[in-house]
Structures are given as C-alpha cells and as structure tokens.
Amino acid sequence: DQQVKQNSPSLSVQEGRISILNCDYTNSMFDYFLWYKKYPAEGPTFLISISSIKDKNEDGRFTVFLNKSAKHLSLHIVPSQPGDSAVYFCAASEVQNNAGNMLTFGGGTRLMVKP
Amino acid sequence: NAGVTQTPKFQVLKTGQSMTLQCAQDMNHNSMYWYRQDPGMGLRLIYYSASEGTTDKGEVPNGYNVSRLNKREFSLRLESAAPSQTSVYFCASSARTSASYEQYFGPGTRLTVT
Description:
The structure holds 2 protein chains of 2 kinds. Chain A is mostly beta strands. Chain A has strands spanning 4-5, 10-14, 19-25, 32-38, 45-51, 56-59, 62-67, 72-77, 86-93, 103-105, 109-114. In chain A, the strands form 2 sheets. In chain A, strands 2, 4, 5, 9, 10 and 11 form a 6-stranded mixed beta sheet that branches. A 5-stranded antiparallel beta sheet of chain A has the order 1-3-8-7-6, with no helix packed on it. The radius of gyration of chain A is 14 Å and the shape is globular. By secondary structure, chain B is mainly beta. Helices cover 0% and strands 51% of the residues of chain B. Chain B is built from no helices and 11 strands. Chain B has strands spanning 4-7, 10-13, 19-25, 31-38, 42-49, 56-57, 64-68, 74-78, 87-94, 104-105, 109-113. In chain B, the strands form 2 sheets. In chain B, strands 2, 4, 5, 6, 9, 10 and 11 form a 7-stranded mixed beta sheet that branches. Chain B has a 4-stranded antiparallel beta sheet with strand order 1-3-8-7, with no helix packed on it.
C-alpha cells in the first residue's frame, strides 16, 4: 500500500496562474517532506522542503503547505511559467528513525503550463 | 563539480544476462541510494548505504545486489536480468546531517530487458 499518494496524475494550468499540486500520506511517523521536480531524461532535482514542526515554507514562487491533522501537503507555484512544466514528486521521510533520511515517494504529477 | 554521475545511460539486456550499474558522487556525501522509477509508481528504493561499509535493503531489493566500493562509489548489480526489471534506475546521495535531508540524483540509466 502506497504511503505517499499524489492522486492527480496530471495538471494543466495557464501561464501566470497558480498551480496547486497535492499530496497525501498515511504514515504518521513521517516528519519531513520534500518536493522534487523532474524533466524528461534527467534525474529529479530538489525543489523545496518542510519540517513537520512548520505548516508553511516559502521559496520565491514556490510555497509548500503542510496540514498534519489531514496528513496532506500541497505545493503552490505562483505565477506559473512554461519552464515549470515537469513531473513533480512529493516525498516523505522519518527523520527520527535510525535510517535517517530514507525517502518514500509519491507517484508524481505531470504539470503542463500553457503559454 | 559533476555531482552524481551514472553509467551507462542506456542498456538493453536479454533475459538471464547480468550487468552492473555504476554510480559515483563527488560531494563527499555519506549516504547513497539506488531507486527504480516505473510509470505511475514514483521512485522506489532498492538498496541504500547509510555510510561507507554498510548497505541495507530498501522497498524492492529482490533480484539486485549492491556494493559500496568506497565513499564515492555505489554500484548496483543485476545477476540474472528479468523483463520485470525494465525500468529507469536512479542513484542518489545525501549528506545525511541534522540540517539537510535532501537527496541529489544522477541522470538515470534506462534499462530494457527483453
């Protein structure tokens, strides 16, 4: 059973508008969350992260929101740009366990930003 | 600074053949990881090495072996390839400090087993 789920396989947004990518998790032991961006034929690249002691983290156009009670996080991209078109992966980690930062990934959401 | 490098980029194997995927990092990271990516499944951890000299199984280790050759290099071996191992394989590394949990990925190896 997948512990991290991204229920929308794809999302299409107009340039300049907001993109909202969602992620749900089931393991209450997860205490650190990350978003990765992946272009075709490349490896994933780190985008932004959030610790479970926070509910929001912002970096330029990217903001991640965490709702621990709902076991839900979201990535907001404002304004969206055509170069943001990629697959976005949500990942989660149990920082406190002995394995350190093993990541569990969601299935990914393909974002398409139309000019 | 090359980051994480992987060789080869592409490989086609016949069922039953063996091969080793190579990975190296130049960021002086302690931890290294091997993932496979399949459509709709995200990335799944095959094996990891928390530090030089240690290796542990991840979520999907069956059919694979690994070697942490030194701090820089972590290889993944398929002893007898099967069509179910057709996938894109990514190597990653991380510093694994209390302030940083990000993993840095290589460009991937696309493997097809016929």
